[in-house]
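fyi for ur records
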Amino acid sequence: MKQYIVDAFTKEVFHGNQAAVCVLDAWPDESLMMAIARENNLSETAFTVREGDGYRLRWFTPGGEIDLCGHATLATAFVLLSFYEREAERITFHTMSGDLHVGRRGECLAMDFPAYACHEVAVTDQMEDALGARPKEAYLDRDLLLVYEDEATVRNMRPDFARVAQIDGADVGVAVTAPGTGHDCVSRFFAPNIAIDEDPVTGSVHCMIAPYWGRRLGKTTIDAYQASARGGEMVCKLRDNRVVILGDAALFSVADLML
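which gave:
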């Protein structure tokens, strides 16, 4: 089995978010995919098989399969367009979240994702206790989004991950965001319930972050930075109920899994 390790949302290795990408001729047992994801111990391992006019794509964290992942989609498209579909301009992925399209956009790649809704929920003491700072606003869709007014609060946050896992609405993860100085917004993403304390750069959560800041700032293009230790940046373009996320990727390794 061929496996690629790609750093997504960066032009340089050792930055952005790592994803393993396994390109397959046929689907292995789900237990094997789960074992590979745990062995890799990255935030995502993506598995893809050609299907019809595109590729079926599935994403596994060390804690289980999820329904949408941005950085591993970017990484998979980068691998396919670099090694398997060199003449193609676009890849269509058939996924649990519907068909996702990723195409070349100059020197980067553009991903067309569904926008998440922002249903406002109450700010609670539970949120403050887990994150160490009280948010000004809170919203819920697949993930929980907590809004702060100070960039330094987000950058310097030291969550209690055991408490984060217990927050109502944190079944997948908790995003924290604030206005940025060099970018429209900064964010971080914590997901201890799927065995990821902090995800370095998270494309899917920007399907919630970007629409929030688009409404608040009156913009259709959001320049976003995820302020993890590795760091990563992306440009998000808002179109009706879709978010087009532009990002770069860098290849770290190519390997044969001895399975």
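The chain is about 20% helix and 45% strand. thats all i got for now
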